[in-house]
Design a protein that fits this description.
The chain is an alpha+beta fold and 346 residues long. Helix content is 36%, strand content 26%. It contains eleven helices and 18 strands. The protein has a five-stranded mixed sheet, with helices on both faces. A hairpin with a 5-residue loop joins β15 and β16. α5 packs antiparallel against α7 and α7 crosses α9. The radius of gyration is 21 Å and the shape is flat.
Length: 346
């Protein structure tokens, strides 16, 4: 397949939790939360990315902190376009004044509708792209993980992001079968919030829940029952309160979310043609995305599927890296717009 290369072109992983921008030859140059702080009275954008995320739960009444992406798709079109414009500008700040607009390869969930996909393409163009090419998230993750996606061999990727978990079997440059569920990292955070609220009458924020998940979150059985202190608001007194919580409790709160992810993996395996299933049996299942960092998740999926499971070397960046690397095959996406965004076999 002929490769066409554009030095100024970008790959964007537009995620529910974080947005990453890959510049050819430089790698991932922007890695920021998908968050925007907006002044409700004037409509002005007060902050984007990390500085906006630091405002969550701390803003006065006239400033609203928005996460414009929900479950992997655009929930607030105008805010998404503004956010992407900011990140594209940040990624290309050193370019020449005469440089043309970049072509952008942008990832989308494999279960996205045509209307949702069109919204992503339009928002990318509004943000300053010359042309925008959608690439399915699991396909990009597989490229980023170094899987042989263009070869006639079955590769299985499970990409657990903030808003969606994408499971796909890939062969010959296309998705053979896939499952996209809107259960992922954000649901793990929400499960922790609800568990602590129900068990301890304590209200904690999104950031605290994410921090607990990263510190002591585990899938399945807990070997070392670590403890962390958490601060929140007592729902009975309304006053601040500190409690200790154990890894076993967090594992119990994450049980349902983990079970849904495992179910999606099994469902995809059931739909996989026998020849490709045999390849996966040999090569194993590869995990990527922030959710892949949940301790013991690879072992739990392996126990449930009776297959080897590996976490890719760079799970947080694999989608962005794959989206950027796919720029080398931009002609392929131009002439086959649906090859990598929709399953070829039901």
């Amino acid at each position: 397949m002929g490769r066409i290369s554009f030095s100024q072109d970008l790959g964007i992983d537009l995620g529910t939790a974080n947005t990453l921008v890959f510049v050819k030859g430089k790698g991932v140059v922007v890695r920021e939360p998908s968050v925007v702080a907006k002044n409700i009275a004037t409509g002005d954008i007060e902050a984007v990315g990390s500085s906006a995320r630091n405002m969550i739960g701390r803003t006065p009444g006239n400033i609203s902190v928005i996460r414009p992406m929900k479950d992997g798709v655009i929930a607030d079109y105008d805010t998404t376009a503004v956010m992407m414009k900011y990140y594209i500008k940040k990624a290309m700040r050193k370019r020449s004044l005469f440089a043309r607009k970049p072509n952008v390869m942008i990832c989308v969930p494999s279960g996205i509708t045509m209307v949702e996909e069109r919204a992503v393409i339009d928002a990318t163009k509004q943000a300053g792209a010359k042309e925008a090419f959608p690439i399915a998230e699991p396909f990009a993750a597989a490229i980023g993980a170094g899987l042989p996606v263009w070869e006639p061999t079955g590769s299985m990727i499970v990409d657990i992001g903030g808003g969606t978990t994408e499971v796909a079997v890939i062969s010959l440059g296309g998705i053979v079968t896939s499952q996209s569920i809107r259960t992922a990292g954000d649901d793990m955070d929400e499960a922790i919030i609800q568990y602590i609220r129900k068990t301890y009458n304590l209200m904690i924020g999104e950031r605290s829940a994410e921090s607990i998940k990263m510190d002591i979150g585990t899938a399945g059985e807990v070997m070392e029952n670590e403890e962390v202190e958490i601060r929140g608001r007592d729902l009975l007194t309304g006053l601040p309160k500190t409690i200790s919580i154990t890894a076993k409790e967090i594992a119990a709160s994450l049980q349902d979310t983990v079970a849904e992810i495992i179910e999606a993996v099994k469902f995809t395996l059931e739909k996989t043609p026998p020849e490709l299933a045999a390849d996966i049996m040999d090569r194993g299942i590869v995990l990527s995305g922030g959710g892949a960092l949940l301790r013991n998740l690879d072992q739990v999926i392996s126990d449930e599927t009776k297959m080897p499971v590996f976490v890719t070397d760079d799970p947080l960046d694999s989608v962005a890296i794959g989206t950027g690397k796919s720029l080398e095959y931009i002609q392929h996406f131009r002439s086959h717009p649906n090859v990598s965004s929709r399953p070829t076999v039901d």
